[in-house]
Amino acid sequence: MKIGFIGTGNMASAIILGAVKSNFIPGKDIYLYDVFTQKAQELSNEIDGNACATAKEAIKEVDIVFLAVKPNMIEKVLADLKEEIVNQKKIVVSIAAGTTIDKLEKNLSKQTPIIRVMPNVNAMINLGAAAVTGNTASNSEQVHYIIDLFASIGKAWEVEEKDFSTFTALAGSSPAYAYLFIDSLARAGVKHGIAKDKALQYAAQAVLGSAQMILDSNENPWTLIDRVCSPGGTTVAGLLKLEEEAFLATVVKGIDATIARDEELSQNSK
Asked: From CA 198, how far away is CA 189, in angstroms rounded?
């Protein structure tokens, strides 16, 4: 498979660099186009890939076309490229947030294999989480190829499109909430006399290890919580105060708001 990327922003660059570094695909099989030609050329040089003068040139050379442009640019980009994509029977992969398969089909055709992906920012360090789904024109082999691509830079799952908004909240937007939690821990450390840079390291390492503990064990998080809480100890005192301030309910409300906004954007994209 040869892959063309229309757009080489942060997320596209993370996907490309991770896939090449993990040996999922050689750089020579990747074709890049960006309106900022220098950006595409620099990335191409880094992976020994192919920078293209136009998007149509990139499409001509590849099997899979990655749409890595901002959601508000999708319609314009597809209007310019529809003829090449449809007539040359390309597979289309979109990572545009809130852009439904229905909208993509309306701008291409229902006969075009279209695969929608919701990645997250941690793909930049090969620890991404991605949801993948295909339209009826795509087949299992095509969908699983894209799942494997994203698995090369983290974890990837086939997720029904109806659950994409929830996935966005749980994995797409949640890194920002995790950053906020870590920063809040660090600020508490500053309050009690620890320098901010050190407090951030302590808190981030603790959160990293805690996440890995959940992934590596079959234990329920509450079981792991109980293991940290000694009777009459410091941890249970802190937990009870967090619950007194509705920590769990507040997190759920944040997820609810994220889902509601994503569903609103998806409706507007139809």
From this structure: 9
Give the separation between CA 37 and CA 52, rounded to whole angstroms.
Answer: 8
Encoded tokens for 41: 């050329």
Q: What is the pLDDT of residue 98?
A: 85
Task: Select from 144, 176, 157 the least CA-distant residue to 118.
Answer: 157
Radius of gyration (C-alpha) of the chain in whole angstroms: 21
Which residues, 6 or more positions from 49, have their beta carbon under 8 angstroms from its beta carbon?
16, 20, 27, 28, 29, 30, 31, 32, 43
pLDDT tens readout for residues 55-98: 999 999 999 999 999 988 999 999 999 999 999 999 999 999 88
For the record, the structure tokens of 22 come out as 């993990």
| Nearest residue to 25 (alpha-carbon basis) of 85, 66, 69, 67 | 66
pTM here is 0.91
- Token pair 């080489």 in the structure block, residue: 8
DSSP E strand stretches across 81-221: 91-94, 114-118, 128-134, 154-158
**Structural tokens at position 264:** 């609103």
pLDDT of the residue at 21:
92
Q: Nearest Cα to 29, choosing from 1, 59, 70, 71?
A: 1
Quick one: tokens of 211?
A: 């996440």
Question: What is the tens place of the pLDDT at every residue in 95-144?
Answer: 998 899 999 999 999 999 999 999 999 998 999 999 999 999 999 999 99
Tell me the residue type at 1.
M
Q: What CA–CA distance (Å, rounded) separates 258 from 173?
A: 8
Residue 117: helix, strand or coil by DSSP?
Answer: strand
Distances (CA, A) of 237 to 90, 182, 209: 58, 19, 22
Cα–Cα distances in Å, from 116 out to 36, 154, 164, 205? Answer: 25, 17, 10, 33
Type of residue at 154: G
